[in-house]
Amino acid sequence: MRSDEKINITNNIDWITVGFYILFVFLGWLNIYAVVYDPEAVSNIFDFSINSGKQLMWIGGAFLLIVAILVIDYKFYSTFAYIFYVISMIILLATIFIGKEVNGSHSWLDLGFVRVQPAEFAKFTTALALARYLGTLGVNIERFDVMFKAGILLLIPCALILLQNETGGMLVFCAFILVMYREGLPGTLLLIGVSVTLLFVLTLAVGNPGQAAATQAAGAIVHAKSGLAQYYSNPILIGLTVLFGLFMLYFIINRLRMTRKQLTNRLIVILTIYVMSIGFVLAVHKIFFEVLQEHQRNRIMVLFDTELDTQGKGYHLHQSKIAIGSGDLFGKGFLEGTQTKFDFVPEQSTDFIFCTIGEEHGWFGSTVLIALYVLFMMRLVFLAERQKDSFSRIYGYSVASIILFHFMVNIGMTIGLFPVIGIPLPFFSYGGSSLWSFTILLFVFLKLDSHRGQVLAGH
User: Fold this and answer.
1) Which residue in 364, 312, 319, 316 sits closest to 338, CA to CA?
2) At a CB cut-off of 8 Å and minimum separation 6, what does 136 contact?
3) Where are the domains of the chain?
4) DSSP symbol at 58
5) How far apart, in Å, do the first and last CA atoms of the chain sit?
6) What distance in Å separates the CA atoms of residue 123 and residue 120, rounded to the nearest whole number?
7) I want to staple 244 with a disulfide (CB 3.0 to 4.6 A). Which of 120, 274, 286, 354 is the partner?
8) Which residues does 351 contact at the CB level (< 8 Å), separation at least 6?
9) How far is Cα 269 from Cα 265, in angstroms, rounded to an integer?
10) DSSP secondary-structure letter at 174?
């Protein structure tokens, strides 16, 4: 590498984003130590036999990755985007058969000296492939064939990760919908997706499946209703029928303002939406009890009744809320968390690391951390928008969307807003796969941003 390029990289790197990264990694390391800290044991934060010491090794490896990313030519990432994607999918496929089972998931590869989770790195390769495809000249996402191909790029890793029984890792790929929307995906499709999700949640919250789930959790025998009996007892279906009737009445009253053809077409659209919605709601019961696995149903049930089986299915969430609530305004102090010390909250170094912040630093510390993440993501969006090259812009939005999804779901599941699906907090949670994958995601974008004045050929 020429000396002038070294100077160029140093001058153009976005040090504000680098500062956020270092701060999050450092705070995460301190809180990982707070989780494993035992005042009666002879150990310190640098002890390699405990998680804080192990995380320090992962941090060292992450900085080596950063150096390698910044040294490699920026064109390398777009040139080999598809190759990275294919290799990643092959590894995901192999993991289904040779992966090590951890907590019921076959998503880990044991390499002897280290254990990695390929699904974490698949987010990076998928982001590259999607950016390469959508960033190609002449590709317009408003066309159906483009939407279809982009959807295939996302569905392949989703299917492979789901086959590993890693539902949380699969759901992360929903974040790419935001990227596609930014690039011109019709807003009606996004509205349909949000509507379907809302209808699903409402059906579980106030419809038969949610009620049946609560009854089943209490130990009763549940028999699924069918036909008209199920229909008339489901408030969601009744609500849909009322809305349908109101829409029909509205268009009939205003029929004089339309031609017969216009009125007929609109009534057909409303009737189609109504029938599809009814079919969707009736299918939720079958999906909930026959498609979802038991542990997945349990996590959803707890959302609608946080006091449901607090010693079993709802234990994680119940203890998490106790830990966060016990911190009050300013917390108990660093290394003073009692819920942490007595291991009441499972997976507190990884998925529930936010509990440590809530307990030891209280509402104030939690608010500061959330504000820092919000500022960090705003910075990423700013960087993405200033890219002259479409590949870099799309990849940048992919990074921001993935981090946003992890941030929202991780914190949301610790306070009961989302199901417990095993989503780490970016740069904060314990684990090499998580830290390294987010490090690669971020610094490849920073490398591209350092060359934002140059445009990649064909993009």
Assistant:
1) 319
2) 458, 459
3) 3-186+316-449, 207-292
4) H
5) 25
6) 6
7) 274
8) 410, 413, 420, 422, 423, 424, 429
9) 6
10) G
Q: How many CA atoms lie within 13 A of 420 on its CB side?
A: 26
Q: Evaluate if residue 303 carries a pLDDT over 70.
A: no
Contact 96, 106 (CB under 8 A): yes
Q: What single letter denotes the amino acid at residue 370? A: I
Mean pLDDT of the chain: 79
Report how far residue 336's alpha carbon sits from residue 347's, in angstroms, rounded to the nearest whole number. 18
Residue by residue, DSSP assigns 372-426 as: HHHHHHHHHHHHHHT-SSHHHHHHHHHHHHHHHHHHHHHHHHHTTSS-----PPT
Q: Spell out the residues 6+ positions from residue 380 whose beta carbon is closer than 8 angstroms to its own.
A: 17, 396, 399, 400, 403, 445
Chain Cα centroid distance, residue 93: 21
Which pair of tokens denotes residue 244? Answer: 């349908």
| DSSP character string of 200-217 | HHHHHHHSHHHHHHHHHH
**Running DSSP on this structure, what letter comes out for residue 291?**
I
Amino acid at site 316: H
What integer is the mean pLDDT of 266-279?
Answer: 76
Partner residues linked to 105 by β-bridges: 102
Q: Nearest Cα to 41, choosing from 375, 370, 341? A: 341
Q: What's the pLDDT tens digit per position in 420-432?
A: 777 889 999 888 8
Amino acid present at 312? G
3-state secondary structure of 269: helix
